[in-house]
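ingest -> validate -> predict -> emit
validate: passed (alphabet ok, no gaps, 159 aa)
predict: started
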Amino acid sequence: MTEGRRIALLEAAQQRLGREVAITLMEMLPPSGWGDVATRQRVDALEHDMQLRFDAVDRRFDALETKYDARFDAVDRRFDALETKYDARFDVVDRGFGAMDRRFDMFESELRSEIRAAFAELRADVAELRVSTTRWAVGVVVSMTGVSAAVVGVLLRFG
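emit:
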């Protein structure tokens, strides 16, 4: 319906029905004609079509969610397997370090024992050296005393 036809209808309705009734009648008409007005049946059909589309989108999202859940589960399993694998490797390394610690402790103990034995032997050698040095010094003093006495005796006799 054109605007000109709408105005003509309003004027005819005013002449026959009066101004107020004509305005009420015109307000009840769609602004651009009945061709643009949707029927209840058409709205229901459109709603049904939209619901079908939303259901299809929901199914696609559900399928993607299932697909990605499966992928994430696979990645989680791979990480779990790697974690288990590396935990086992670290356990081996830890045992290796434990063995090395025990070997170092044993080496340290043996080294300390050898050092103690060497110091004990050194002390014994120093003590023996003191005794022999003291004996030598006493022998020298005694000898010197004997020589001195002989020299004094000779001097007194020939003197």
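DSSP finds three helices and no strands in the chain.
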